[in-house]
Amino acid sequence: MALTSIQAICIGVFAIAGATVVYTLFGYPLLLGWMANRHEQPVHRDDILRSVSFVIAVHNGETFLERKLNSILALNYPRELVEMIVVSDGSDDRTDEIVRSFAPHGVRLVPVPRGGKPAALNVAVPMATGEILALTDIRQTLHPDCLRNAIACFGDPKVGAVSGELQVAPGETQDENDFGVYWRYEVWIRTQMARIDSTFGCNGPFYLMRRSLWVPVSPDTLLDDVYLPLTAFFKGYRLLLEPTAIVYELPIALHSEFKRKVRLQAGLYQTLQIMPEMLTRRNRMRFHFVSGKYFRILLPYCLIAMALATIGLPPPWRTLAIAAQVAFYGLAALDAILPARFPLKRLTSPIRTFVVLISATLIALRVFFVPPQSLWKEKTVRVAEAPHPK
User: Fold this and answer.
1) 206 touches 164 (CB < 8 A)
2) Long-range interactions of 316-319: CB distance < 8 A, separation 24+
3) Which of 54, 153, 272, 283 is the most exposed place for a label (fewest CB within 10 A)?
4) Which of 203, 117, 137, 116 is nearest to 381 (CA)?
5) Contact between 183 and 357 (Cβ < 8 Å)
6) What's the pLDDT score for residue 389?
7) Where would I find the beta strands (DSSP E) of the chain?
């Protein structure tokens, strides 16, 4: 039976959208791994121990701050080469008191009015004296060799910034463990990009950057850990992820990761506005940016296009497509009401995690209609499960 023009269009839309989803989730990672094996650019490391300035911007961080400062003090690195600055962003809990208690260890408190992380960094970083900036959050702890292993990468003059590898502790719930799987997938992608040339930004919980490359950050910037490294990238420097610079993260619940994902995707929209050269020939990693970042923005729209195009598919493909999508989204909805230890959650939880994180891209469009700072949300984690450096 001949196809109608509407059916032909729907088939085309469904096929293109579906192919984009498959390429983004599976095809590109396979291609990336192959390219990394064939076109790896080695990093020239050395054993020089450079001076380092830790800058920690914190607002009401009494829960984690003492543990974080002790983690830095326990690093396998000469103490005389480490400077520690904590900029308290309008904290009204015990943050300032805790920092002052570490003054005998050389920790410096810089209190500033509440203005957000970028504004706090703009005040504190010019006070730093180290050759290398270490920008880190308070919740994560550092492996004792984390700093030494990351610093070695700066033996290569082409390296501008280095991220630590975030290792997420096992969770108690299925969705926390599903995030851990997703994060390992994300780390693998970034590692392969770094082998070829550069990642697109750094891991905010811990990254190093040559202090000479610092530039002030606009107060409404959502992703300073993307904007700052990219300014170095467009000056010709590489942005690396160092697998031996290990940073320990607490288990993260899905609802908390959803809020973070909204901010990250909104920050990506914002970055494209600020740096349109990401999509031009100035970006020597343009193919990887489009495949690994831009196509991810398109995923929810592709899934919506597939759902709409299903209506116009010819039988029996329409019936099969409807059944598959109802089953997929139905399992995601079912997961929300299943008991925590129910066996089916091994299937439903990953599907729900995927749907929730993909939907964050749509919610992130709010960045065009609300003040960017309103998208900052605090993560929900369980302190008792904090992993300890080994």
Assistant:
1) yes
2) 317/11
3) 272
4) 137
5) no
6) 47
7) 52-58, 82-89, 107-112, 132-136, 141-142, 159-168, 206-210, 238-249
**For range 231-247, the mean pLDDT:** 96
Specify the higher pLDDT residue, 157 or 178. Answer: 157
**Omega cis (within 30) before 316:** yes
Of 129, 189, 154, residue with least CA distance to 46: 154
Q: Which two tokens stand for residue 199?
A: 């990642």
32-54 pLDDT tens trace = 999 999 999 999 999 999 999 99
Q: Which residues contact 45 (CB under 8 A, 6 or more apart)?
A: 152, 153, 155, 156
266 token code pair: 């909104």
Pick among 3.50.50.60, 3.90.550.10, 3.40.1010.20, 3.40.50.1970: CATH of 8-390: 3.90.550.10
Tokens of 294: 């831009």
Q: Is the dihedral of CA 284, 289, 291, 294 positive or negative?
A: negative
* pLDDT (tens digit per residue) in 175-231: 667 667 778 888 999 999 999 999 999 988 999 999 999 999 999 888 999 999 999
CA distances from 194 to 40, 187, 188, 288, 324 (A): 9, 10, 10, 11, 37
The answer to whether the Cα torsion of 332, 333, 336, 337 is positive or negative is negative
